[in-house]
Amino acid sequence: MNEFSLKYGCNPNQKPARIYMADGSDLPVEILNGRPGYINFLDAFNSWQLVKEIRENTGCVAATSFKHVSPTSAAIGKKLTPSLKKACFVDDIEGLDDSPLACAYARARGTDRMSSFGDWIALSDECDETTAKIVSREVSDGIIAPGYSPAALEILKGKRKGGYNIVKIDKDYVPAEIERKQVFGITFEQGRNNFKIDRGLLENIVTKNKELPADKATDLVISLITLKYTQSNSVCFAADGQAIGVGAGQQSRIHCTRLAAQKADLWHLRQHEKVLSLRFADGVGRPEKNNIIDLYLSDDYEEVLGDGVWRNNFKVRPEPFTREEKAEYLAGITGVSLGSDAFFPFSDNIERAYRSGVSYVAEPGGSVRDDLVIEAADAHNMVMAFTGMRLFHH
């Protein structure tokens, strides 16, 4: 099959729509179930490249959760701590520790659950039954992987009343070196971004502190590969083998950093005992729990704790998580890694990142103010590598 007809393009009025191979060859995908749309395939092909590269460059299985052509997170298959399992709503999944792929997706989906609602999933390896069980109970548009076990495929085909989008991709497919796209009837052409991101990219450490542990280097590599497939401008925070905060598509670098930092902070706060001990009212589902937690952690906590509403959300009214308590907890966070798809033009990005526990930074360098950025990093004893490579993606 070298062509697949789509219901419509980005919007219902954009017809006709299709994906096809211009050279007449077969498409490198097989649609096993459902009928993916235009945006689904944009997410599918971008997300597959991300997990494939993480797999190749870390040697670990990987998963990502995508929404609107940007990852909400990406992760390798490290086991979750008991608190992280609970924060990610997977503490009841049997056999989770025995499936690295399930651990990877549990991390990716659990990082920014609000953004992941209705996500597209990519897996670096064959989808197993445990991973499929997690996917089966989340609101999701579809999944792409190089294969599916019979049990996993049966589970996934039962989603969305049998209409769940399941795509199998040829893991050995290599696209042409030149890529093209049209905008306003005009064809753009460029070489594919085949730049390899690995530990070697982090050798130019420009700060006084040059101690970069292997696990932190892995986090930086994950953050940079994630950025390679994130709509620019973008900044990515990473920790413990996963992206924990992605700031995508902002015109200003500091706004990218603030957005990513805010998401990273929420990821840490969701693992606080005060959040993990929340006793939700009977009948409150996972999406609702996530929305409640988000409000509970915000300055608008009275929307879920107020006298007239708390019984709708909780069995027992919890104490507010005060701004001072949150600040004290976050002040103890260190060791976070940060990647940026372009240079930091001002040191304010470093200052904001430091408040969210960043100790390791990878960015291209090349700003006229590089000296000020390095000075700020040195003031906080950070390790910062200049990669020399911009990672814009549009």
Question: Could you characterize what this model shows?
Answer:
The chain is α/β, with parallel strands linked by helices and 394 residues long. The chain folds into 3 domains: 3-174, Cytidine Deaminase, domain 2; 197-269 and 330-386, Cytidine Deaminase, domain 2; 275-320, no CATH class. The chain has 15 helices and 15 strands. The strands form 4 sheets. It has a 6-stranded mixed sheet. Strand 7, helix 6 and strand 8 form a beta-alpha-beta unit. Helix 5 runs parallel beside helix 6. The chain is globular. The chain starts with a strand and ends in an 8-residue tail after the last strand. The mean pLDDT is 96.
Jot down its keywords:
Cytidine Deaminase, domain 2, 3 domains, 15 helices, five-stranded mixed beta sheet, 15 strands, single chain, alpha/beta, 394 residues, globular, six-stranded mixed beta sheet
Write the layout of secondary structure elements.
Layout (H helix, E strand, L loop, with lengths): L2 E4 L10 E4 L8 E5 L4 H21 L3 E6 L2 E7 L5 H6 L12 H12 L1 H4 L2 E5 L5 H8 L3 E6 L4 H8 L7 E5 L8 E6 L2 E6 L22 H15 L5 E6 L2 E7 L4 H17 L3 H4 L9 H11 L5 H4 L4 H4 L9 H9 L4 E5 L7 H7 L3 E6 L6 H10 L3 E4 L8
Parallel strand pairs: 6-7, 7-8, 13-14, 14-15
Antiparallel strand pairs: 1-2, 3-8, 4-5, 4-6, 9-10, 11-12, 11-13
Query: Could you say which overall geometry the principal axes of the C-alpha atoms support?
Result: globular
Order of helices and strands: EEEHEEHHHEHEHEEEHEEHHHHHHEHEHE
Q: In order across it, which strands form the biggest sheet? A: 3-8-7-6-4-5
Largest sheet: 6 strands, mixed
Radius of gyration: 21 Å
Beta-strand portion reads: 15-25%
CATH class of the largest domain reads: Alpha Beta
Distance separating the two termini: 28 Å
Please report the total strand number as a whole number.
15
CATH fold-level name of the largest domain? Cytidine Deaminase, domain 2
Number of helices: 15
CATH homologous superfamily name of the largest domain?
AICAR transformylase, duplication domain
Parts with pLDDT < 50 across at least 5 consecutive residues: none
Assign a percent range to the helix content. Answer: 25-40%
Secondary-structure class? alpha/beta
